[in-house]
Design a protein that fits this description.
The protein contains five helices and no strands. The longest helix is centred in the first third of the chain and has 33 residues. It starts with 7 loop residues before the first helix and ends with a helix.
């Protein structure tokens, strides 16, 4: 069985592929930054002397990671605009917890 690999379509659309790669890497870097920032804030809250701040950190660590990601994205994308403001596709993706 002989097959001739035809990468002409890939090479013809290389600009779109590289643009998608740049977008994906950009979203990954932004998500990593905000994830580390939230983790650092939660670590400081968890070690705080205030009982209320420790409760917030405990609630975040207990409730949010145990909620399925599609439900959190659904809430961010459909419920927040009705309550507060509109988030675009990228903002909804970035604001979803890890």
């Amino acid at each position: 069985m002989r097959y001739h690999w035809n990468f002409g379509t890939v090479f013809n659309n290389m600009d779109a592929l590289l643009e998608g790669l740049a977008l994906g890497l950009g979203l990954a870097v932004v998500s990593l930054f905000f994830g580390m920032l939230i983790g650092l804030v939660m670590a400081f809250l968890a070690t705080s002397k205030s009982r209320f701040l420790r409760f917030i950190a405990k609630w975040y660590v207990t409730i949010l990671p145990n909620t399925p990601l599609p439900i959190l994205i659904f809430i961010l994308y459909f419920c927040l605009p009705a309550i507060m403001f509109f988030l675009g596709n990228s903002a909804s993706f970035l604001s979803a917890p890890p």
